[in-house]
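User: Assemble these into one structure.

Assistant: Restating your components, then the assembled model:
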Amino acid sequence: MKIMKIKRPPKRVNEDIKEISTATAWSVLGSLGIKSVIMRGIFPLKPNTKMVGPAQTLYYLPLREDKEYTAEDLRKSAAMRLAEETKPGDVIVVDSGGPGYYGGMGDVMITGFAVKKAAGMVFDGVIRDSPYVRTLEMPVFCCGVQPSTTPRNMPVAADVMVRCGGVLVCPGDIVMGDDDGVIVIPKEKAEQVAELGLEREKIEKYSRRLLESGKPLNYAYPPKREWLDNPPI
Amino acid sequence: MKIMKIKRPPKRVNEDIKEISTATAWSVLGSLGIKSVIMRGIFPLKPNTKMVGPAQTLYYLPLREDKEYTAEDLRKSAAMRLAEETKPGDVIVVDSGGPGYYGGMGDVMITGFAVKKAAGMVFDGVIRDSPYVRTLEMPVFCCGVQPSTTPRNMPVAADVMVRCGGVLVCPGDIVMGDDDGVIVIPKEKAEQVAELGLEREKIEKYSRRLLESGKPLNYAYPPKREWLDNPPI
Amino acid sequence: MKIMKIKRPPKRVNEDIKEISTATAWSVLGSLGIKSVIMRGIFPLKPNTKMVGPAQTLYYLPLREDKEYTAEDLRKSAAMRLAEETKPGDVIVVDSGGPGYYGGMGDVMITGFAVKKAAGMVFDGVIRDSPYVRTLEMPVFCCGVQPSTTPRNMPVAADVMVRCGGVLVCPGDIVMGDDDGVIVIPKEKAEQVAELGLEREKIEKYSRRLLESGKPLNYAYPPKREWLDNPPI
Amino acid sequence: MKIMKIKRPPKRVNEDIKEISTATAWSVLGSLGIKSVIMRGIFPLKPNTKMVGPAQTLYYLPLREDKEYTAEDLRKSAAMRLAEETKPGDVIVVDSGGPGYYGGMGDVMITGFAVKKAAGMVFDGVIRDSPYVRTLEMPVFCCGVQPSTTPRNMPVAADVMVRCGGVLVCPGDIVMGDDDGVIVIPKEKAEQVAELGLEREKIEKYSRRLLESGKPLNYAYPPKREWLDNPPI
Amino acid sequence: MKIMKIKRPPKRVNEDIKEISTATAWSVLGSLGIKSVIMRGIFPLKPNTKMVGPAQTLYYLPLREDKEYTAEDLRKSAAMRLAEETKPGDVIVVDSGGPGYYGGMGDVMITGFAVKKAAGMVFDGVIRDSPYVRTLEMPVFCCGVQPSTTPRNMPVAADVMVRCGGVLVCPGDIVMGDDDGVIVIPKEKAEQVAELGLEREKIEKYSRRLLESGKPLNYAYPPKREWLDNPPI
Amino acid sequence: MKIMKIKRPPKRVNEDIKEISTATAWSVLGSLGIKSVIMRGIFPLKPNTKMVGPAQTLYYLPLREDKEYTAEDLRKSAAMRLAEETKPGDVIVVDSGGPGYYGGMGDVMITGFAVKKAAGMVFDGVIRDSPYVRTLEMPVFCCGVQPSTTPRNMPVAADVMVRCGGVLVCPGDIVMGDDDGVIVIPKEKAEQVAELGLEREKIEKYSRRLLESGKPLNYAYPPKREWLDNPPI
């Protein structure tokens, strides 16, 4: 199986979304009628994290002792092929079954994506080797940490639609994470979210500046769209 | 996509496994080195339930508002085709994402499998319409009940390997459930589990009869394999 | 403080809603744009339960040892006054803080509402004396049971908007419960839910009958509104 | 190690406590300043259960693969010796580590205590073989059920103080359980709880009869101690 | 509705309580018979936090789609009026329904209280915009973070008794928080807690100094009240 | 009762294990057939923690109000005696019943072990005084923090086998903890784990260096034992 090339967003769109919080992006998506985009139970390994990029997906299934799964199988697996296809700025999104599962991601595997300059990893499961992984620049979002590899998982496919943190992720969707959590922006909506999100951030900044200048809260909030044309401060 | 025909176990093997508890089958599988077979968090909708049969699998992914999913899509979906392929005695095994998810299974859909004389349904999610579903003869094992269809799921594939209750299920594996829960018997091991399981049930019955006849617990337990040849009572 | 008289729904509307499942009522409300109506974590004390009626609400706050709260205070409390105002068919809805709380409801207090022929009680907390309460005809929905009265709660108001199972309940809203759980029907929507719900139940019954007569699942489901005029069977 | 003989309560005290609910016994103990007596997370395997009797305790520790633990070790273990010492009416109380643990109790082991006419078993862990155990007359209270024996435990001592459901249980303490849960009555308080509890049950019965005869709730409740001398109905 | 002015504690009392840990204040309150004062499930957004001040309370109820709630409603709401009444050193205490709820508090709303020099906010729900909120000096204690505003809440009252983290908070009670969590000091007890708490901190400091000087643990602990007059070191 | 002297590992073994992560030690133990060694639900109070040393164990049972337990009892308790026996480098391992329990460990008690230069404390329960405890050099692993001492526990034995985080710990076993969690190395296996673990760390380092030098992931991983003799880079 060959990993298909995902279509990556224009650099400007990606950069613009980096200026937006997940909270703002969620509000914008909601105004477009898209609400089922928040990953539940997935948090950054370290605080003060920001991640934006197109999704490269990976799908794991549990191992069972009657199925042989060798080091050689792992070497030929979808996970390995995906690492080769990873481009700078990609976000690796792994469905490994949720908080109860270890999913074959420890220090070396994660480093394998970090050296490709991936923008981050979202792992719907627990990782191990967190003392080392914390030292990487690449942000990792996951359900938790533990020292063991049980229950074990095996990578069965890359470049497919997956469930992660309870939401659908398609290859190429924009995945963004910060300290509030992780959300998915459908790729067709990325440009619109970038544009509307920057506007929203701008008027919320006016709100905060109004407050800092002594205006009452109900004057400053909720912010008004008209401020884009007539700044209130 | 056409649903492939699964290979079903010989009728005698299926009948023999019905005489065995999930606890005994688990012990036998463990003695064969196979341990990752217990579904977690999945329980019978009603007590005093027993279910055994080959797995017909179904795989759901979460819906997202930017993806249109119509009644017509559902009519053409893998779930509908699987219902057509279901034979008496089959067990429908659905990966719908775990306890947080509704998976498109309410009274009518479940009835669709019950009228085919399926042996049962294992649903890794929550169902709705439980007042009606409880009236069906077909046993249903699931993570819980609720009146709503949110968060929504869509069936994307049948007849594939799935994760259910945290374990791997392949089409045709024997799935068995009782009040203790649900376990998977790899299809290649079904005959062996039937044979060893019946033996185990036999010597455990001796244990209980010894106790009832007044023998001390450490005489009666653990049971001994030699009792198969020399009954202790 | 006097308990205001709630406006109760026409008898026919109440009877019609009794013919509808919570699942169907939820679907109808959803089609009207009303979704935040499912109580989470609240289940019937006994299976095979059905309850429909207008809400009489009660609001508890935690007790603190520096506040004196005597038997006399309880006798004069909102809970006692509400019991006097309860009419046959009313549903008592109590915000007592969720699963961590005991809320001053044991066998005698609950009997106080049962003798008034209340249609049921929804209790967002744990009750005690469940062995006795199970013997009552009046259904009770709650978060769980325990033998103690800690942490303690005190009734502070009746006949007010409350939060129960995570949703808003206004006095007079229709509250319905069955084995799937409990939902709230805003009083202004009760008539519409009764009408649309009966229609929905009717076409779903056609779906099930079609299946029982051997029609394929994707013919029988989803049911079609046109069947109301042209029955498919 | 020999199991010491516990001091059992007078037959009359035991019978009297059977007339009292756990809720009432808890209230009486609370009035004596004793509050830390409710087991958390332990429920009856079947509804409509009542159990009262003196505690025979058992203490388990987790097994580790570097420690050999053979069938012979089990035969010589404290669990086996305790089964021999069990007298009709005793309640077997097992600390097996809480809901995450299997504790070496399945159908045969539990039958070993049932044939001794034990009044019940309280198991701070999960059991297996629940389909069979449900058929026994002896009530079993536990944290849950599962088909497996993992994680495994080994009995290390009987007749010692144990932690069960989060509370201290000393050999000979009276343990009582019903559908509300399980509580411990310190043995020195058993007689007092029997006496005060019967009084409490008596006046609560007056409360319910007053309600049934049409008296207002705040007349009937809270019940008054003076009713013992001057029945209100 | 006008927000009533709460009675604030003398500056010295407030300053003294700042020298005391929540653990010590809890012990002192317990010695006065007041135990139901610990908020459960509410933690500081950032470690190394300390907060003390009089409570300004806010009460939210869930929104339901049949109730219109506009930006204008929010502008006129109790939350906005409370922001105007907030004085430097006040602690904003919000009952928004617990960990499952978003409660209308994101970066701008929280900034609205921060610019008033509030001493902190205790939020019984989840907040959003945590990346920004973490940059504020004002400490925030809450149940968690997420990017969305669902399920939505609406502020219905300020300046009322509320339930927060499972305990009663009255306007003007002293609320204190540190890394151990949040507790409530009934306003009438504030002076006594300040005095006794400082004494307790003093003798515990002797305990630690004795240990550091090489004294055995059972000499140094528990600390003795007599050390206030005769320092042991 | 006198605390027996535990046998401590050779200094070199202890130092070698400090160079190994818990993840690697777990893998090595697994290859020796020893798997039940990971403590569940126990995490470091502060990130970037590393702890290795022989276990000194302590066993707590819940207090009950009918049992008197005075300051004098505590002074004579096993906890106090264990503090006296603690040697530099020891790890104090306390079974206090899991996340629901406070176990008699606050700032002074913990300081009592810290001044003895203990290598760390593993506490199967919640501690208090975390603001102070965080300032200590000695790492503390526990289930959480809170300001109160309820539910209360009492130390009943030291120097015994205990259950901690769900696994067996014998006095003298090597306990190691880092940000992934805590594991137990049976004392008889310590030397072997040190040796094999260092080898494993060495070849994993080659894996990461290969990746950093641009080699593909499936070349670098899984690492090969033969690299010990023939370094791949």
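Chain A touches chain F at residues 71, 74-76, 79-80, 83-84, 106-109, 111-112, 115, 128-132, 134, 145-150 (CB under 8 Å).
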